[in-house]
Amino acid sequence: MADIRTADVDDLLTVLATLDEPDDVFALLEDLFTVREIRETSQRLLVARLLAAGKSYAAIEAETGASATTIARVSKCLSYGSGGYKRALAILGEEPPVKAS
Fold this sequence. Notes:
There is one protein chain. The protein is an all-alpha fold and 101 residues long. It has a single domain (7-92), classed as TrpR-like (Trp Operon Repressor, Chain A, Orthogonal Bundle), CATH 1.10.1270.10. Helix content is 69%, strand content 0%. The longest helix is centred in the middle third of the chain and has 18 residues, at 35-52. This is TrpR YerC/YecD.
């Protein structure tokens, strides 16, 4: 994924890391993404929460409407990814903090 980390991506990261107010972040999300993209991204975080809580794929699919493919992708990221979901869950108080590599 190193090829995706461009100067433009770094600018976006700087903006996101600088915004302090949830309403400001939401306004940016509304401008950057479609409603569907916001919902799908939020759904992935919910899937991560449910996986971390030990829920089965079938229960998660029934509760969220996420596909088995999406659930598997999130599960793989939780186990082998760069730690983004774990950091997000730690921010939400649902997972122990993870040190950045």
